[in-house]
Amino acid sequence: MNIKSEGEILELTKKIVKVLYEKDGIDIKILDMKESPLLVDYFVIATGNSETHLNALRDAVVEKFKEENHNLLYYDKDKGYEWLIVDGGSVVVHLFTESAREFYDLEGLWSEAKRINI
User: Mostly located where (predicted)?
Assistant: First the structure.
């Protein structure tokens, strides 16, 4: 994976959020995870309104990582999940159905993490 500066990682995160907005992602949030014990800079969290929508969001995010020449560590490729993860190492994207987002409550779990507004 290419080593990127903090500024480049933030720019990549903004581009991913833009793609999610363009694909009608719902309630998109960015959590600054640099102060957490996790080896990640940002969580991007969004909701999709159906399985098809979640898959489209995932595919768009994966494509954006590839366009930006940012290697992916992992992403959920199967169908039928209510929580899809696209792990780009320094940026991890969490895509949820509305009920799964409420159930897993990552924003509540990481309530100390600073929110980034774009």
Answer: cytoplasm
For 18-65, the pLDDT digits (tens) are 999 999 999 999 999 999 999 999 999 999 999 999 999 999 999 999
103-113 per-position pLDDT tens digit: 999 999 999 99
Q: Is residue 110 part of a domain?
A: yes
54 occurs within a structural domain = yes
| CATH value at residue 59 | 3.30.460.10
Cα-Cα-Cα-Cα torsion 14, 19, 25, 28, nearest 10 degrees, comes to: 0
pLDDT tens sequence across 56-105: 999 999 999 999 999 899 999 988 899 999 999 999 999 999 999 999 99
The answer to whether residue 1 sits within a structural domain is no
Q: Which domain holds residue 12?
A: 6-116
Count of the separate structural domains present in the chain: 1
